[in-house]
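The material for today's practical consists of a large collection of protein records. There is nothing in a record beyond a sequence line and a structure line. As an example, a complete record with its sequence and its structure tokens follows:
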Amino acid sequence: MSTSVPVPVSLDIRHAGEPLPPVPTGTRFHLSLNVSNIERVASFLQLVLGVAPVKQRADYAKFELDSPPLVLSLEQNPPQETGSLNHLGFRFSSTSDLLNAQNRIEAAGIAVQREEGVECCYARQTKFWVHDPDHRLWEFYVLEGDLEHRGGGQTLAQMVGDSTACDIAPAMQRPVLWEHRMGTEFSIPATASDQIRLRGSFNVPVSDAEVKRILRLCFENLKPGGQLELHMLTCEQPLACAIELPGPAAYVKHVPVRTRLTRGLTETGFVDCRLTTFRSGACFQLDGQPLRETRIVAIKPLVHMETDHVGLVYRGPFSEIRDDYGHVWRRGELTDCSARRWDELKKTGFESSFTMIPQTSKFRQCGA
């Protein structure tokens, strides 16, 4: 009895450490799947497709096929929670092709949501999104370049730890990440975390007291300087109706008021709270209110060592600003600040609003 051997799509298998191949030209179909284990599914698909992933991280993998022309990506999302399909779409080879597609779709009366130069999936992309009648998400994009971090300014080490150094670096030197997902038991670990992510944790029925308790547990678990990230749908005012949303969003049964979340973070003791994802366009409309995708990042304060200081001059445009520590900077006035606090401000992207005056300044010709 003869045994047939399946013919692979391609035999161009890369080995670890080899450079990425150039991005193929032409329009390609894009399919993104939710998987329970990136490494296990990627290994399976490598055998099935006959090609290695062109990009693989602890929470993401991507395959490029020439026949058929396909971009297949894997996202670390348990399928039993959200379904196997993440989203579909097309990758274009030029921004002009992307714009032509957007103009054609908008001319047909279909609303689109456009994003310029967004960082996600370890790449920089310009894209737009549409929902089909069954509320599936379709993505149309051009790839502008690969990144070493997933997006939103976070490095791989900040999100999942340095997986490339797991065998040689002591565990205590690797950032510790803990993540909770909507619908799963909230059981915070005993080990202190560098970063905690709550994904949809408050999009299930939860009382205000329970929200406060969860935020307090996160605060207590985080190391000083650690980061808490909330990612969920939020609304402007409490909803008075039952929540019935289409597609994967059907799992959402509670939508918290955004201002209550930010106020709760401050009351818990978090500082430098900011909305890293919050768009003018809403994902859904319910009870006359927009429901928006919201990502909030907040920091557990460091223990400040008030030894080294710098002078900061706030440049405007506001008359004054106040941070969560109670520091006040008035426009044009020199204000003393600890060097460590200045480092924290730079990480939040506010460096361009200040001029730093060191304790010993060097003179130079104006305009030089």
Observations:
- The two ends are 84 Å apart (CA to CA).
